[in-house]
Amino acid sequence: MSQLAVGLLVSIGCVALCTAAIYPLREITPAVSTGVVYMLGVLIVSTYYGLWPGLFTSVASAAAFNFFHIPPTGTLDIAKSENWVALVVFFIVAAIASSLAEQSRARAREAERRRREANLAVQAAFALLADRERLQAATIETEALRRSDEVKTALLRAVSHDLRSPLTAILAAGEALTSPGIEQNDRRALAKAVTDEASRLSGLVDKLLDLSRLEAGQAQPRPDWCSIEEVVAAAVEDLGGRGELIRVSIDNDLPFVRADAAQLERAIANLLENAVRFSGGEQSLVRGRALGDRVVIRVVDRGPGIPPADLDHVFEPFYQRPDDRPHEGSGLGLAIVRGLVEVNGGRVWAESVPGQGTTFVIELPFEPRAEQSHPVPQEVG
Predict the structure, then answer these.
(1) For 149-172, what is each residue's pLDDT tens digit?
(2) For residue 187, what pLDDT is reported?
(3) Phi, psi of 225 (to 5 degrees)
(4) What secondary structure does DSSP assign to 245-289, as a single string?
(5) Where are the domains of the chain?
(6) How many CB atoms within 10 Å of residue 110?
(7) pTM of the model
(8) Could you tell me the fold of the domain covering 224-371?
């Protein structure tokens, strides 16, 4: 039996199991909110059998969800407009999950291809050279598999939690919009909530893709001369009205650095967004200065600080600060910051005293002034 046929059979089985699992859930939660259960089947089929079986699972899940659980049941007709919203949003998220899973499969196949090529190279080498090549091939394979596992783990966590949160909010707002007694102001607020949560969902998918490219080594920079002052200004501008909460202090004689200005801007923008989120409406500081042969950028927030034991973990994907306050972030921003800084030859770390805020430090190398003859800054934005 072909791989595709097996995938379709597994798909049908997953849809049937998810459909059955929803029935007891309908006693404790509205039926329209239970569609996220089908995501598990979509993810399993997409991860192990590929994009097309995953898309088939998405379509079959949407049809089963409509037929068995969305009133009126037993028919493909949909009586309420909010149920259309739920069904369309479910299918879109399911298709995104299938696509991301297929990318993970492609990376795994690439890792296997590299392993086979490395083995062929080992067989053709001399005795001492063969041992060396085998060791190198094993290292490449381990790293490739590690990256593939990290991508799969990130995808599973995103689908199970971070994607579900905005999806639930969209479904709830869509259902409320159909209420006949809702006032115009409330209707506008709910419509804005749908837009905001959809943007949040889109941003999360973008961050997942950015992190996937960084983990796979596919985010190579395009270095050029760039001005730290202009990069910081562009990052502050990305915050829109929240930019007023950022105070910038950049030394006038700060030298140019050779880096990918667009990547550097994204890294600083993520740090600024993080600082604004945790500073409780107080101003955060961006400080730029030269120390020896390095340019140092510090982003200082007014948040609750980070315990020393957690400072080494803040740049890990999905890390959340260990306090009792709710977090709106996905936990991907700082992981992306580290990746973008490191591919540009720099390093980044956090310094914090609990209760007194946190300082994130970016350190970048620069060439001596004698070699910076009439540099042309790279455009950012």
Answers:
(1) 665 665 555 555 566 677 777 777
(2) 77
(3) -65, 130
(4) GEEEEE-TTPPPEEE-HHHHHHHHHHHHHHHHHHTTT--EEEEEE
(5) 3-215, 224-371
(6) 13
(7) 0.51
(8) Heat Shock Protein 90 (3.30.565)
